[in-house]
Amino acid sequence: MTDITVPTLGESITEATVGQWLKAEGDAVKKDDVLVELETDKVSVEVSATEDGVLGAITAQPGDTVEIGAVLGRIDGGAGGAKPAEAAPAKQEAKEESKPAAAPAASGGETTDIVVPVMGESVAEGTLSTFLKKPGEAVKKDETIAEIETDKVALEVPAPADGVIAEWTVAEGTSVTPGSVIGRVSASAGAAAAPAASAPAPKAAAPEAASGDRPVAPSVRRISAEAGVDPQNIPGTGRDGRATKADAMAYVNAPKAPAAAAAAPSAPRETGPREERVRMTRLRQTIARRLKEAQDTAAMLTTFNDVDMGAIMDLRKKHQEAFVAKHGIKLGFMSFFVKACVNALKEVPAVNAEIDGQDIIYKNYYDIGVAVGTEKGLVVPVVRDSDDMSLAGIEKAIANLGKKARDGELTIGDMQGGTFTISNGGIYGSLMSTPILNPPQSGVLGMHRIEQRPVVVNGEIKIRPMMYLALSYDHRIVDGKEAVTFLVRVKEALEDPERMLLEV
C-alpha cells in the first residue's frame, strides 16, 4: 500500500484545494497516471501514481483544502492489483485499444516515455512550444527534441534514449506539467513507419475539448457563485484552458467596464494591410503581467538624485590594466554600484525587505538582481551574497550571467530570490527614467548615462561627468526619509569609493 500525498507546490505555497479525481476507487492505475488535480492560488498541479496498482480509499474529496504532505488517498499494489483490471468493463477495454501505446507493438521494439523535466522551483507548468523532431526520425540520447516555454525561461527536452521518435502524445501549444509524458522513443528502427500514423492523435483531442463546457474546479465554482458570475466566462490559464482559483479571483476583482465597453465584442480587432499580428511569447506575457501587477499592487514612488562619477572613472583608469592582469576581467561601473547598494541596504533595511500579508520580512542577505535586456525580453539574473564578494567577483558573476542571458541558458534558479534590483538604462542612452519594481522586492535603482554637465564645486562652476540616479520604492514599507537616505548613501559611496571599499 502506498500513500498518495500532496507534493511540494512551490516557494511560499503551503496549501491547495482538491480539484477533481480522474480515477475512481477500485480503478486500476499505472505508474505516472494522473490521479487527481490540485489547485493553488497560482496554478493547477497534477498528482500522478508512483507505482502500478489499484486506487484504494480516497481520503480527500473535491473542494477540500489540503497541506503539503497530506494524504489524498492510497494505491493498493501487488498481485491484487491485477483483478480490478481484469474485471474492468468492456468500455475500459475499448479505451485501452484506442490508446496510441498500441503503436510500439506494431514495431516490435521497446519504447521509452519522453517526460517533461522539472522546470524549477515554484514553476508548475509550461507550454510545449516546438517539436524539433518528427515521428519516425532517429534521435540519440540527450539530444534536444522539444522546447518548453515557462513563465521565465525556455527549457529543452532531451531524448531519454537512442532510437526513433515513435509518437508525440500532445500537440504544440499544449500546457504541460513536470513529469507528464509528451511522447515516446522506440528502440527499434522499425518503428519509423507505424508511429507516424499515430502522430495526429494529439490533434484529435481538440474536438473533445471544444465540445461542452470546461470542467470547473470547486474553488472556482465557489468564487463564481459568491460573485454572481458564470464560471465559464472566466479566462483560464490552467491545463486545457481551465480556470484556476487565481484566475477566478482576478476576474471577479477586476474593475468593471462601462456598459458600452462590456457590450463590445471581445474578438481581436482586424489588422490592416501594413500591420502584422504576432502572439506574445510566454516570457513576454509574464513580463507584462508582473510589471502591471507591480503598478496595481505596490504604492510605487520614485526619488531622484545625481552623482559625480569622476572619482570612479579616475580609479578605473588608474588601475584597469593591473586589474585585468590579475583577475582576467575589466573593472566596470556595475560592481561599484552593487557594493554601494549593499552598504546602503545595510543602513536602510526596509529597502531590502518585502511585505507578506500583514507582515514585513527583513532579509539579512544581499542577493542583487541585475536587469539584462535580451532579444526575448527583460530578465533579472541574481548575484548571490554580493556583500561577501570582491569587485572582481561581482564583475565575473555579472559577466557570466549576462552571457547566459544572451545565449538563452539562464535557469529558474538564476533569476529567483533577489532582494533588490539594479537596472542600467544608461547603456541604451537613457538620461532619466522611473524604473518599475520587481515584486515582491521593495526597491529598484535605475542607472543612466554619464553626461558632462556644469555643476558648482566649492563655489566654482566646473564640468563634471554626472549621472542621474532613480530609486523606485514601495511606499507601503519604505518611508520617504528612508528612500532619500538610501539614495544619498549610494551617492556618497560612489563619489568617494575609497571610503566605501574601506567600509569607513
From TrEMBL:
It catalyses: N(6)-[(R)-dihydrolipoyl]-L-lysyl-[protein] + succinyl-CoA = N(6)-[(R)-S(8)-succinyldihydrolipoyl]-L-lysyl-[protein] + CoA. Its EC number is 2.3.1.61. The keyword Acyltransferase applies. Residues 1-76, 111-186 form the Lipoyl-binding domain. Keywords: Acyltransferase, Lipoyl, Transferase, Tricarboxylic acid cycle. One of its GO terms (biological process) is tricarboxylic acid cycle. It holds the Pfam family Biotin_lipoyl. Residues 79-112, 199-218 are annotated as: Disordered. Residues 82-91, 100-109, 199-210 have a biased composition (Low complexity). One of its GO terms (cellular component) is cytosol. Its cofactor is (R)-lipoate. GO terms for molecular function: dihydrolipoyllysine-residue succinyltransferase activity. Residues 215-252 form the Peripheral subunit-binding (PSBD) domain. Pathway: Amino-acid degradation; L-lysine degradation via saccharopine pathway; glutaryl-CoA from L-lysine: step 6/6. Belongs to the 2-oxoacid dehydrogenase family. E2 component of the 2-oxoglutarate dehydrogenase (OGDH) complex which catalyzes the second step in the conversion of 2-oxoglutarate to succinyl-CoA and CO(2). NCBIfam families: PRK05704.1, sucB. Forms a 24-polypeptide structural core with octahedral symmetry. Part of the 2-oxoglutarate dehydrogenase (OGDH) complex composed of E1 (2-oxoglutarate dehydrogenase), E2 (dihydrolipoamide succinyltransferase) and E3 (dihydrolipoamide dehydrogenase); the complex contains multiple copies of the three enzymatic components (E1, E2 and E3). This is Dihydrolipoyllysine-residue succinyltransferase component of 2-oxoglutarate dehydrogenase complex. It comes from Hyphomonas jannaschiana VP2.
